[in-house]
Design a protein that fits this description.
The chain is an alpha/beta fold and 299 residues long. It contains twelve helices and nine strands. Strands 1, 2, 3, 4, 5, 6, 7, 8 and 9 form a nine-stranded mixed beta sheet that branches.
Length: 299
Amino acid sequence: MIAWLRVGLIASTLTLMTLVQMPLQNLAIARKWRLARRLPFLWHRIACRLIGIRVTLNGRPATERPLLIVANHQSWADITVLGRVTELSFIAKAEVRSWPAFGTLARLQRTVFVERGERHRTGEQADAIAERLVEGDAMVLFAEGTTSDGNEVLPFKTALFGAAQAALRQAGGAVLVQPVAVAYRGAHGLPLGRYGRPLAAWPGDVPLLPHLLAFLREGAIDVEVSFGTPIPFDAGGDRKRLARQVESEVRRMLAASLRGPNCHGRLQSVASPDDSALARATGQSDIGSETERSFQKGA
C-alpha cells in the first residue's frame, strides 16, 4: 500500500511540475532563450530526487562545444539520469514523439526525432542534429539504436555519427565526441547483479507500464555515470572508426562500473597506452562495498 502511495505521489508531483513549466518552456523554445536548456535540467534534478535515483559520477561532461555525447542505453531512466547531470538534449527514434507523457517530455526537452529505418533520410537527419550542435547544444546519441538489459553494450550503429561530420561542414574546426557509460549498480544499498539489473533496464520486448511502476515502487536506485575523455573529430576523421573507438570506451567503462568500486583504476592499468588520458579524466566509484559476484553467491 505504501509503495502505491509513493507511486501516486511521484506521478502527481511530476505531472504538476510539468504542467507548471510547460508554458514557460514552450515560450523559451519559441524565443530561443537560454532558459530552454535550463528548465529541463532542473526538471530532471527534481525528478531524480523524487524517484530516488542516486547518481555518482566518474569524470565530468565536457564544457567545450560542439559536443556529441554517445552513451549506452538501457531504460527511459537514462534520460533523467543524464538530464540531471548537465544541460543537454537527446536524439530519439521518431515513434517516441507519439508516446503518451514521454512524447510530451521529449518535445519539451527539445529532442531531435529521427527515422532510423529510412536510410535515404540519414543525411538530412544528420544535418538537423549538426545544426543543434553548432548552436551550442550538447546532444546525446544512444548509438545502440535500442535498449539493452544493462549487463552489456550492444554494437553501435554508425549512421548518425555522420552528424559530427555535418557539424564540421557547418562550423569548421573540430567536434568533440564524448563516450559515456550509464550503469545501474544497486538498489537500497545492495548490488543488483546480473539478474537483478533488469529492474532498471527496459529491453524492447518488456511492456513499459509494468516496468515503470516496478521502478517507481522500488526507489533508492544507485546509478554510476562515467564520462570518458572527449575525442576530437575533424574533417579527416572516419565516422566508422570513430564509432568503434567510442563503443570500445563505453564498453570498458560499463564493465568497470559493474565490477564495483575502484575498478575503473584497475581496468585502466591494463588498457592500451592511448587510454592514459581517460584514466586522468575519470574518478572512482563510491557506491556500495559488495561486488556483483558476491551478491550472486549470496542470492
